[in-house]
Design goal:
Layout: H1 2-12, H2 18-35, H3 37-53, H4 82-106, H5 115-130, E1 143-145, H6 151-160, H7 166-170, H8 203-220, E2 231-236, H9 243-246, H10 249-254, E3 260-266, H11 281-292, E4 295-299, H12 304-311, H13 316-323, H14 326-334, H15 337-343, H16 349-354, H17 360-364, H18 373-385, E5 391-396, H19 421-430, H20 453-464, H21 489-492, H22 503-515, E6 524-528, H23 539-544, E7 546-547, E8 567-568, E9 574-575, H24 580-591, H25 593-596, E10 602-608, H26 613-625, E11 631-635, H27 654-659, E12 664-667, H28 672-688, E13 694-698, H29 713-719, E14 722-725, E15 733-739, H30 744-758, E16 760-766, H31 770-786, H32 796-801, E17 808-811, H33 816-820, E18 832-835, H34 846-852, H35 857-870, H36 876-885
Parallel strand pairs: 1-2, 2-3, 3-5, 4-5, 6-9, 6-10, 7-8, 10-11, 11-13, 12-13, 15-16, 15-17, 17-18
Antiparallel strand pairs: 14-16
């Protein structure tokens, strides 16, 4: 310790009184020896505080020396049989390599990654053997966010455990026929194995933070006992450049998530080259996490360095360690011991003296901390036991460890998926695999007999921890009754004369009804991102409270109001602030709780639709991969509904994004009764039936009279389309008008204009889900193609339209592509015209915006008349009369280009 302090003193400047300095340092050394580091830390903090209060300018440093955080004498010793564990890891390394290389020798385009697992095999081995619990009656199980590119090593372990077959190993990345293993962790493709998807990069650490917070939330509310569970998230140092990786670390510290451990595999390399060639990624990350309030543990050097550091009385070795940049460290491990002697120890004569009695091989065997089981065990133990803070482990490793010249510490390591025979031979020899020379070309998998002592040990370790991991629960053991549709009577009926409400208000009424339900009320998870008042949901603040682990340490400024801002340790609302990504991560945690916690939760994440799928699209895909179940509520939806924001703040495309995700059930309801029918059906499917789907429902803040539900409309609402009203029965001319959201009302008004001004009857169709209508059509089309000799199926929308008369005009508040989805399923020979809101948003009144985007009642009317003229049913002069009558400017620029 005194050597470190002397080094700091030297860095500060010339010492004017060396004797006084020595006395202070000796005093501190005595405190460390006799009273421990906690007391020393307290005294130093008091001195720094006093100095600052007296005006001294003491610079802040968020980093520590470039050495292991845990002193050697304080390291916990790994209790396992390290000989067995080393052999097991060697076999796993080999089988992981064999799986990837065999796949790419058979099909060179499959890809795969070897180097990530090679660098963190020791960490995964220590975790699986000693720390990570499977779910049992007494333990809910630990949750693992595995570094995505290390999946081959996890498969190799499961193969030794007997959980995967050789056939599956031979079908790595060959999933179409149902026998293969997914490239990365994908619960969708391996639903009883992987817990979470961790590729795309950055999503793992971000989701892990909110998952840890959600476990605390469940415990605080008395829904599940989670205080003995841990979240372990593994990620690469290059991955930490993703904004999501560090985006929520402040929340983790603020909420004291001591159930969270993030392990950063610092192998210093990403795909193209060094993560930080000119600096140190470990020091940079230490500063980020320590500054945010995390417990930071660095595991940099293996045990061979301990003796050298103990000899470093002058701090020269530590100074060289600090001054050496990552690009150099990478180079050292790509070369040999002689190179390290010359270019690292050769930086100072006294360092060369320090290793004079060591051979080049001895120097080469100076390992990094991430490859030593004792160092890893000690760090994991501290992480597991630490209280009051989340922990990050910054563990230095070698990318491609064990791959030799083919990949070890080389820029090409990440992409290496093919090894030549010599590289395979070197790996066999390095890890002492009992595979004869005449079998090497076949790269056989290695699995010893079940009664081999190492195999017995492997199973015993997992038995002691409750079972095998990773594993995933597909269905919750819970059964919760779902209320019938009649429970939502307050939004099913027509609004009284003169009363108007929006679909957002209808949604709030549905939520209020659910919160009062004796079976489901406590399972509702309202998730908001600082927009509660926008959606009229501020009444929930007082009713159910906002979750905060500290409760409310202040009196809110609006305490005298009915709907005051109330935070509570057992609050039900998750208020994420201005943070769509955080809201989505909380939603994912709640939407997968049936699997991770055996507790069915009902999350409603309500957000501006414009900031929904556009901002969190990657997370939405991840949620589908995780088989999430819940409701995403896109508020103020549509390009002309949110009339005061403009340009990029108006949503004309979220439903197009939603349509791309197979398990998403997207709806754009117009009326309150449609909202109730859709949500009740979602509860039935996701809770009663435990189907792996989720709902995206757009809601609007435009008030209008609600017509109420009519008998028999439920089926059409859920299928995505139904006849709302019928035009005059005996009319000679007829058109079909389709609409959804608030723009359906423009179609209704257009029907009146067509009848009253032009004598044309119009049937009006409500289409709460054009996407589901399109999927039904695509399903029928595909069935007919592969079953040509069987009775051909008729798409649902075709069956609705085929017995109607006249052109069909579909109008929405979204881009034309939204309604174009169903064009292929219109009856043959029928005109199908689509109006939409392509182009940039604008800020203006709703009426002006709908005029600008050409989706108002007048444009719908003109589109219907033009379609009739195109079919020869009326003269084109009628269309020109309508254009003049309604004041439509034919020379107005196309909004698509504006």
């Amino acid at each position: 310790m005194s050597a470190q302090l002397n080094q700091v003193t030297t860095q500060i400047g010339t010492d004017p009184d060396m004797q006084e300095t020595k006395e202070w340092l000796d005093a501190l050394e005595a405190v460390l020896e006799n009273e421990g580091p906690e007391r020393a830390h307290y005294l130093m903090e008091r001195m720094v505080d006093l100095a600052r209060r007296r005006g001294a300018q003491i610079p802040f440093s968020s980093t520590t020396a470039y050495v292991n955080t845990i002193p050697t004498k304080q390291e916990a010793h790994c209790p396992g049989n390290l000989e067995y564990e080393e052999r097991l890891r060697s076999w796993m390394r080999w089988n992981a390599m064999a799986m990837v290389v065999k796949a790419n020798r058979a099909d060179g385009d499959l890809g795969g990654h070897l180097s990530s697992f090679a660098s963190l095999a020791n960490m995964l081995g220590i975790g699986f053997n000693h720390f990570w619990h499977a779910p049992t009656a007494d333990h809910g199980g630990d949750l693992l966010y595995i570094q995505g590119h290390s999946s081959p090593g996890v498969y190799a372990r499961a193969f030794l455990e007997g959980r995967l077959t050789e056939e599956q190993m031979l079908n790595f990345r060959k999933e179409v026929d149902g026998k293969g293993l997914s490239s990365y962790p994908h619960p969708k493709l391996m639903p009883d194995f992987w817990q979470f998807p961790t590729v795309s990069m950055g999503l793992g650490p971000h989701m892990a933070i909110y998952q840890a917070r959600f476990l605390k939330y469940l415990h605080a509310r008395g829904i599940a006992k989670t205080d003995n569970r841990k979240i372990w998230a593994f990620c690469g140092d290059g991955e930490m450049d993703e904004p999501e990786s560090l985006g929520a670390i402040g929340l983790a510290a603020r909420d004291m998530l001591d159930n969270l451990v993030i392990v950063v595999n610092c192998n210093l390399q990403r795909l193209d080259g060094p993560v930080r060639g000119n600096t140190k990624i470990i020091q940079e990350l230490e500063g980020e996490f320590r500054g945010a309030g995390w417990n930071v543990v660095k595991v940099i050097w293996g045990p061979g360095w301990d003796a050298l550091l103990a000899q470093d009385k002058e701090g020269i070795l530590q100074r060289v360690m600090m001054e050496t940049v990552d690009g150099e460290y990478q180079n050292y491990k790509a070369k040999d011991g002689a190179y390290v002697r010359k270019h690292f120890f050769g930086k100072h004569p006294k360092l060369l003296e320090m290793v004079a009695n060591m051979t080049d091989d001895d120097i080469w065997r100076l390992t990094r901390g991430g490859h030593d089981p004792h160092k890893i065990y000690a760090a994991f133990k501290i992480a597991q036991e630490h209280k009051g803070q989340p922990t990050v482990l910054l563990v230095k490793t070698i990318k491609g460890y064990g791959m030799g010249k083919s990949g070890e510490a080389r820029n090409t390591a990440h992409q290496t998926k093919k090894l030549d025979d010599e590289a395979i031979r070197e790996m066999r020899d390095r890890f002492s695999l009992p595979i004869p020379d005449d079998k090497l070309a076949d790269i056989p998998f290695f699995k010893p007999a079940d009664d081999a002592p190492e195999m017995v040990y492997l199973h015993e370790r997992r038995k002691a921890l409750g079972g095998y991991l990773p594993q995933r629960r597909q269905k919750s053991e819970e059964t919760l009754p779902v209320p019938g549709l009649d429970a939502f009577k307050n939004v099913l009926e027509a609004t009284p004369e003169g009363r108007e409400i929006s679909t957002t208000q209808a949604f709030v009424r549905v939520i209020s009804t659910l919160l009062k339900d004796p079976n489901l009320g406590q399972r509702v998870v309202p998730i908001l991102v600082d927009e509660s008042r926008t959606f009229g949901m501020e009444g929930l603040f007082r009713q159910i409270g906002i979750y905060n682990p500290k409760g409310q340490l202040y009196e809110p400024v609006d305490k005298d109001q009915v709907m005051y801002y109330r935070e509570d340790k057992a609050g039900q609302i998750l208020q994420e602030g201005i943070n769509e990504a955080g809201g989505m991560s909380s939603w994912i945690a709640a939407a997968t709780s049936y699997s991770t916690n055996d507790r069915i939760m009902i999350p409603f994440y309500t957000f501006y639709s414009m900031f929904g799928f556009q901002r969190i699209g990657d997370q939405v895909w991840a949620s589908a991969d995780m088989r999430a179940r819940g409701f995403l509520m896109g508020g103020t939806a549509g390009r002309t509904t949110l009339n005061g924001e403009g340009l990029q703040h108006e949503d004309g495309h979220s439903h197009i994004f939603a349509a791309t995700i197979p398990t998403c059930m997207p709806y754009d309801p117009t009326f309150s009764h449609e909202v109730a029918v859709i949500i009740q059906d979602g509860l039935r499917r996701m809770i009663a039936n435990q189907e792996d789907v989720f709902y995206y429902i757009t809601i609007m803040n435009e008030n209008y009279a609600q017509p109420g539900i009519k008998p028999g409309q439920e089926e059409g609402i859920l299928k995505g389309m139904y006849k709302l009203q019928e035009g005059q029965a005996d009319a000679k001319l007829r058109v079909q008008l389709i609409g959804c959201g608030t723009i359906l009302r423009e179609s209704i008004f257009a029907a009146e204009l067509l009848q009253n001004d032009w004598g044309v009857a119009a049937d009006v169709w409500s289409a709460p889900s054009l996407t589901l209508v399109a999927r039904d059509g695509q399903d029928a089309e595909r069935w007919n193609m592969v079953n040509p000799s069987k009775e051909q199926r008729v798409p649902y929308v075709t069956s609705l339209m085929q017995d109607t008369d006249g052109p069909i005009v579909a109008t929405t508040d979204y881009m034309r592509a939204f309604a174009e989805q169903i064009r292929a399923f219109m009856p043959k020979g029928r005109t199908y015209k689509v109006l939409g809101t392509d182009g940039f948003g604008r800020s203006d009144s709703r009426a002006k915006l709908r005029e600008f985007f050409e989706v108002n009642r007048y444009y719908v009317t003109v589109a219907a008349l033009k379609s009739l003229a195109d079919e020869g049913k009326i003269d084109v002069s009628v269309v020109e009369q309508a254009i003049a009558k309604y004041g439509i400017d034919a020379n107005k620029p196309n909004p698509v280009t504006q």
